Amino acid sequence: MSDTDAIVQDPVTGSFGFRLEIGRDHGGIRMQARRTGFVTERAATIEYDRLCRQRDARHPKPRLSDSVQSICEGWVLSREQELEPNTVYGYRWLLGLIYPYVGGVRASRLSARMVERAYRELEGCGYSRTTLRTLNLVLAKAFSGQVGRTLGVRKPRESDKERPVWSLVEAWRFCDHVGADRLYPLWRLLLVTGLRRGELCGLRCGNLELLQGTLTVRRQLVVEDPGSRVRAKPPKSHNGVRTLVLDPGTLGLLGPVAAGPASRYLFAGRWGQPIRPDNLTDRFNQLAVAAKVRPIGPHQIRHLIASTLLDAGYGVHEVAERLGHDPATLMRYYTRVSAARRLEATDRIAELMTAPGIPPKAPRNWAGCTTSLLPEAGTSAKARTG
Predict the structure, then answer these.
(1) Nearest to 221 by CA among 229, 231, 236, 213
(2) Which stretch of 36-40, 109-113, 114-118, 173-177 has the lowest confidence by average pLDDT?
(3) 91: nearest Cα among 107, 101, 80
(4) Dist. CA 349–CA 296, nearest whole Å
(5) Of 132, 178, 210, whose CA–CA distance to 284 is shortest?
(6) Nearest residue to 191 (alpha-carbon basis) of 116, 272, 247
(7) 226 preceded by a cis bond (ω within 30 of 0)
(8) Which of 63, 95, 179, 195 is deepest in the core (most CB within 10 A)?
(9) CA–CA separation, 273 vs 372, rounded Å?
(10) Is the CB of residue 280 less than 8 Å from the CB of residue 201?
(11) pTM of the entire structure?
(12) What spatial distance separates the first Cα and last Cα of the chain, rounded to whole Å?
């Protein structure tokens, strides 16, 4: 029994009771069974066991004779209670990609070759390698969690394409173009903080402290599929809850916004409703096209800020704290080396690794090898080495 399912005794009445998690309903709402008032612990245990059997009967124990689709769907169903609805939707969508290829195959007969062939065909249909790598991870988790089996599938190799990131010139051009836009304070805040789009949309007036010059991020708005319903939730990770110090220019723009029309949200639509994250992305890309810069979406601003601050000499932990990220993740996914920084590193390493005052030697033609490495005409290699 887990702590949430344990049978407990009421210290006042002396009766016994319990709480049992039984999953989520069709709307994604968490469901629990609560029972109290049992005179003895044994009576409570009997009822607890009966409800457990009733709950578990809906999810029969998976077997290797079941189909791949049955195994995967059972795994997603068993994890609905602990996962966000959007995550459940994403898992089902990913696993649904492979069902036409191996969904009807018995789990005991599924081979790594079958799965790898399905990945190749999916890539031929236009799915990216990033999507296929994520699918491979989810499929492996499903089999490991349900039947304890390792598929041994070779992961699709990583994509050769890097995500596009703006240069500082593009950021300046965009900032100059949106100066007259109604949401200019939002765009300015995005460019100086790198907030996620959901965090921008979820900001409330109370999160801004003008006297302290800070902005606190406590929540985000997310679009749930299917249905495209918007709801508020905590930031993506525990690092996402953070307080940012803002520059005077940005504070001067946000002050009138917070004191404007009555709305709980710092940035709202014309009728006071919160801005949808997907609408924010669309508007950003429209303005980017009008500003004659690449419409790469607001999330890539985070990559630009990370690389720019690291190039300027700020520490990894400082940058990660500002972006609300784990330092290791920041270094792996959010950094780019600028051309100027690359040239500076080239000159610096040459300066450090060569002795001062000694002129550099002429470059050697390693392909044809220099005469200094070959025996002189008329001499043997033994004579030279002697």
Answers:
(1) 231
(2) 36-40
(3) 80
(4) 34
(5) 178
(6) 247
(7) yes
(8) 195
(9) 77
(10) yes
(11) 0.64
(12) 81
Pairwise CA distance, residues 253 & 160, whole Å: 41
* DSSP secondary structure code for residue 185 in this structure: H
**What pLDDT does 380 receive?**
40
In this structure, what DSSP letter does residue 273 have? P
Residue 334, pLDDT score = 64
Question: What 3-state DSSP class applies to 373?
Answer: helix
For the residues of 196-252, what is the DSSP string, one character each?
A: -HHHHHH-BGGGEETTTTEEEE--EEEEETTTTEEEEE--SSGGG-EEEE--HHHHH
Residue carrying the six token digits 């009576």: 43
Give 385's pLDDT tier (boundaries 50, 70, 90): very low
Domain boundaries defined on the chain: 3-57, 68-147, 168-333
Strand pairing class (16-24; 30-38) = antiparallel
pLDDT, tens digit (0-9, with 9 covering 90-100), for 14-57? 889 888 887 766 555 777 788 888 888 888 888 888 778 777 76
Q: Mean pLDDT in the chain?
A: 81
Mean pLDDT of 78-87: 78
Range scoring the smallest mean pLDDT among 95-99, 207-211, 301-305, 354-358:
354-358
Rounded-to-integer distance, Cα 153 and Cα 211, Å: 57
Q: Give the CATH superfamily of 168-333.
A: Intergrase catalytic core (1.10.443.10)
| Amino acid identity at 74 | G
The answer on pLDDT for 348 being more than 50 is yes
Lowest mean pLDDT among 158-162, 172-176, 280-284, 333-337: 333-337
Would you state the structure tokens that stand for residue 13, as one six-digit string?
Answer: 């009445």
Quick one: residue 23, left, alpha or beta (phi over 0 = left, psi -120 to 50 = alpha)? left
Q: Tokens 């599938």 identify what position?
A: 153
3-state secondary structure of 235: coil
Single-letter code of the amino acid located at 210: L
* Dist CA 192 CA 120 (whole Å): 42
Cα–Cα dist 185/315, whole Å: 28
